[in-house]
Amino acid sequence: MPNDKTSKPDIKDVETEPDISLLSRLLDKDNMENIILFDEDGEPVELEQIAVIPLDGKLYVILRPIDEDEDVATVFLVSPDDEDSIIAIEDEDLAKKVIDAYNDAK
């Protein structure tokens, strides 16, 4: 489960099925597929979806790299302008606020 630790990979792109938006995949409770993102070197990073958190009028998603041994999660903002874009949260306080909202909702 996520805790206060966050990592901030430099994510450039999202691999999704062409007919299904990333947001639709994230919101689909039946979707069990991992999300594939690409790092700054173009290498794929496979992430497990932990939660989608609405907070302060914005939508955030918590993802965890499946190859990590530690309990590390990254908080992303779902772009309000493009439902196929997510933006890694750099602000530690905001990331903690989102994770706290997740923990409170459990």
Descriptive overview:
- With 106 residues, the chain is of the alpha+beta class.
- It has one domain (13-105).
- It is built from two helices and six strands, in the order βαβββββα.
- A six-stranded antiparallel β-sheet has the order 1-2-3-4-5-6.
- The radius of gyration is 13 Å and the shape is globular.
- It starts with 12 loop residues before the first strand and ends with a helix.
Protein topology:
Blueprint: E1 13-15, H1 22-27, E2 35-38, E3 44-55, E4 58-65, E5 74-78, E6 86-88, H2 92-105
Antiparallel strand pairs: 1-2, 2-3, 3-4, 4-5, 5-6
Radius of gyration: 13 Å
Largest sheet: 6 strands, antiparallel
* Counted beta strands: 6
Q: What is the spatial order of strands in the main beta sheet?
A: 1-2-3-4-5-6
Strand content: 25-35%
**What are the secondary-structure elements, in order, as H or E?**
EHEEEEEH
- Mean pLDDT score, rounded? 81
Summarize this entry quickly.
The chain has two helices and six strands; from the N terminus they run βαβββββα. With 106 residues, it is α+β, with helices and mostly antiparallel strands.
Which characteristics define this entry?
six-stranded antiparallel β-sheet, alpha+beta, 106 residues, disordered N terminus
